[in-house]
Design goal:
By secondary structure, the chain is α/β, with parallel strands linked by helices. The chain has a single domain, classed as TIM Barrel, CATH 3.20.20.80. The strands form two sheets. Strands 8-7-6-5-4-11-10-9 form an eight-stranded parallel β-sheet. It has a three-stranded antiparallel β-sheet with strand order 1-2-3. Helix 12 packs parallel to helix 13.
């Protein structure tokens, strides 16, 4: 019997935004997050392996103990891969749904007991077409077998867990936007792939629209999130000119609005050691400057700002104090930018030793800082607006 956690509480044409201010999980009203009927801002953790370990090995309950540790540390929610990474990872779902969801139930029930919210990232990679013998361009066909399978997965998840207090929001996948309209897309095709396996922004618009509609058919209240990274510094030019020329600030704003049109959020990922001039935006040289523009874009569109990954890895040429300073600065930038929701990368992922955070390793301080940030952020969320 796992212990150590508190008991849970009792149990537009594109997308209908979440609006109800109360009920399980999160909701949105006027572009702001609410939890339990009160304004909310939060910082959580990415826990990629939360379901993956028990999916691979039903006897491995180590991540359930990890969820307990996060609850005890005051981390309010986790983002996790709720499906497969490779096509073979969907085998259990396709062949034995009862067993698949028995294992997922263990995650959800533990989260309920430990008072940790869940943001499942449903389609971490784009392998569903491989399961139904279609090319990946069928993500862009609303009548395809790929989209039909996506709807089935969403229906099975949402109808099973929509009444759970642990479910906070529904995310499509991980960094889809970085794969779109690439001038060198042929380099990233699967083995035996053709031009029909090159993903485009037109395909993404359909897959996100249909995902949002599928969720809304069963859950009209919780936020629907995209899961994107920050746009490439050349994303607009990738699409329109098929080159790597740097985008202007307005072109980046246009890409943010295009790629997040179907969801309730503007979604970006942000890492402390990445210079803006290298990966994100060449019109600013600070994370703070980048976040100010993204925050305004989200607010003007009536959307929440979701930083689904942020952090800094302890690289071989970095010492621990420098790593802490970078993380502290990044967390402060997120706070000053009035980010609604963010999650650090990564809790308990042994194959990324430079990133992984556990309660007993050298990066345990991240848990303390994030717990403290949650207390500050929620005081700010509940504070009345400043006067003129």
């Amino acid at each position: 019997m796992l212990g150590g956690c508190t008991a849970p509480p009792a149990a537009g044409p594109v997308v209908m935004p979440a609006t109800a201010p109360a009920g399980p999980g999160l909701s949105i009203r006027d572009g702001k997050l609410y939890r339990n009927g009160r304004p909310y801002r939060g910082v959580g953790a990415n826990y990629y392996d939360l379901f993956q370990r028990i999916l691979r090995n039903p006897k491995d309950d180590s991540t359930l103990r990890g969820l307990e540790a996060l609850g005890a540390a005051g981390i309010p929610f986790v983002r996790f891969n709720a499906g497969g990474f490779q096509a073979r990872d969907w085998k259990l779902y396709l062949e034995d749904k009862t067993e698949f969801f028995r294992r997922m139930d263990l995650v959800v029930r533990t989260a309920e007991r430990c008072n940790v919210g869940l943001i499942p990232s449903m389609f971490w990679t784009f392998v569903l077409p491989d399961l139904v013998d279609e090319h990946r361009d069928q993500w862009g066909n609303a009548d395809s077998k790929t989209i039909a399978l996506m709807r089935q997965v969403v229906r099975d998840f949402v109808t099973r867990y929509k009444d759970s207090p642990a479910l906070w929001a529904w995310e499509f996948g991980n960094e889809l936007n970085l794969a779109l309209d690439l001038p060198n897309a042929q380099k990233f095709r699967k083995k035996g792939g053709t031009q029909r396996d090159d993903l485009t922004s037109a395909h993404a618009a359909v897959m996100l629209r249909e995902f949002a509609r599928a969720v809304r058919e069963h859950d009209r209240r919780r936020p629907v999130l995209a899961g994107h990274s920050h746009p490439r510094f050349c994303a607009w030019n990738n699409t329109h000119n098929h080159n790597w020329k740097e985008d202007t600030r307005q072109q980046m704003v246009d890409i943010l609005l295009r790629d997040n049109a179907a969801t309730d959020d503007i979604s970006v990922h942000l890492y402390g050691e990445d210079a803006n001039t290298r990966e994100m935006a060449r019109w600013t040289d600070t994370h703070a400057g980048f976040l100010r523009v993204v925050r305004k874009t989200a607010s003007d569109a009536g959307k929440v700002l979701w930083v689904g990954e942020f952090g800094v890895g302890l690289q071989p040429d970095q010492d621990e104090p420098r790593c802490r300073r970078i993380f502290e600065d990044l967390l402060a930038d997120l706070e000053r930018a009035d980010v609604d929701l963010a999650a650090f990368w990564i809790f308990d992922l042994p194959n990324q030793p430079q990133w992984t955070v556990t309660p007993d390793n050298a990066r345990a301080w991240v848990l303390h800082w994030v717990a403290a940030a949650n207390r500050r952020w929620n005081r700010l969320a509940l504070a009345p607006p400043a006067g003129p």
